[in-house]
Amino acid sequence: MCDHDARPSSVGSFAVISREPVAEGVHRLVLSRHAADSAGSLDAPAPGQFYLLRARPSAVLLGRPISVYAFDDASISFLILERGEGSRELCSALPGSLVDLLGPIGNRFMTPRELAAGGTGPLRVACLGGGIGVAPVAGFALSLEPGTFDFYASFRSTPYGLEGIADRARRLVVTTEDGSAGTKGMLPAVFDASEYDVVYACGPTPMLRYVKDATASVPFSFLSLEQHMACGAGACLGCTVRTTGGNRRCCVDGPVFDAKEVLL
Ligand SMILES: Cc1cc2nc3c(=O)[nH]c(=O)nc-3n(C[C@H](O)[C@H](O)[C@H](O)COP(=O)(O)OP(=O)(O)OC[C@H]3O[C@@H](n4cnc5c(N)ncnc54)[C@H](O)[C@@H]3O)c2cc1C
Ligand code: FES
Fold it and tell me: How far is the CA of 226 from the centre of ligand 1 (A)?
């Protein structure tokens, strides 16, 4: 699932261009792609990869894994949910301040085109994002050909992270638990796995368990996992994931795993 080095290739400090709230407790952080010390710029990450991020100054020792949400010639963007100290610092970073980045890390989502190679025709594609898990899936979906995928996004309340998706998806389906937008309820209320040949998902573990079970008969189903991490370089085994093929490291063997292989 990986045609590039899954270990972090660059490290440096990057200036905050902007940081704005997009929903309660969730911020979009936009960093310059060019290192603050002019020591180069970030190579384009593959959709599904992540970086370790640490605000400067910081009270935490290690960077926190955050998926790439968007990337262009000048900047790289992340969607960050405040959980503890590390994410709170990032969600308070001011324009002009610095953030340490290590990455890009991990494998990537295989594209429908790669999966269909030699097959009978275009695949029916669904992208599923739950809460902050919408970030890597939306970033990936925006790299697909417009009109070739359906996008399902489930939130507790106010939706976020869906810029550009409605214009490019064949269908955008939103659910909220409080009914404030879209269909009231969760993913199972709107998702029928039998309509698809390939499914890409990221979200909380209960949602991923549901997707794994629901897509058991779908030819291709991929889950992007968000394990707790430490080194992010494959060395500490702090991010172990159980699979049918034995233990794997979420950081460098994932974060994207075949749903049929991963044990949740
Ligand atoms: C590959 C990958 C990609 C990720 N992408 C994103 C992203 O795009 N945006 C984003 O906001 N977050 C993302 N996360 C989760 C993010 O890394 C954690 O929320 C963050 O590390 C928490 O650090 P903290 O210092 O704020 O909280 P801590 O003080 O470390 O923890 C605070 C609380 O959050 C819980 N927590 C910590 N890490 C996780 C986790 N991985 N999953 C669930 N609960 C956790 C802890 O158990 C604790 O209860 C990703 C994680 C991984 C592994
Ligand atoms: S975080 Fe250390 S091996 Fe994955």
Answer: 7
Give mean pLDDT in consecutive 10-residue pieces for the chain, a chain of 264 residues.
61 94 97 86 90 96 95 95 97 97 94 84 94 97 96 97 96 97 97 98 98 97 96 95 97 97 96
Query: What pLDDT is recorded for position 199?
Result: 98
Residues with Cβ within 8 Å of 114's Cβ and at least 6 positions away in sequence, in order, are none
What backbone torsions phi and psi does residue 194 show, to the nearest 5 degrees?
Answer: -70, -10
Give the residue, out of 102, 107, 236, with the most ligand 2 atoms within 8 A of its beta carbon, to mutate for a pocket test: 236
The two three-digit tokens of residue 168, written as one number = 């490019």
SS3 256: strand
Q: Which CATH number is 149's domain given?
A: 3.40.50.80
Q: How many angstroms separate the CA atoms of 97 and 158, rounded?
A: 29
Please state the atom number of ligand 2 nearest to the C-alpha of residue 250.
Answer: 4
Predicted TM-score of the model (pTM): 0.95
Q: Are residues 150 and 220 in the same domain?
A: yes
Cβ proximity of 180 and 190 under 8 Å: no
Residue 241 lies in a domain: no
At residue 11, the pLDDT reads 80
Q: Which residues of 98-134 are buried (b: 16+ CB within 10 A; e: fewer)?
A: bbbbbbbbbbbbbbbeebbeeeeeebbbbbbbbbbbb
Supply 89's token pair.
Answer: 């610092």
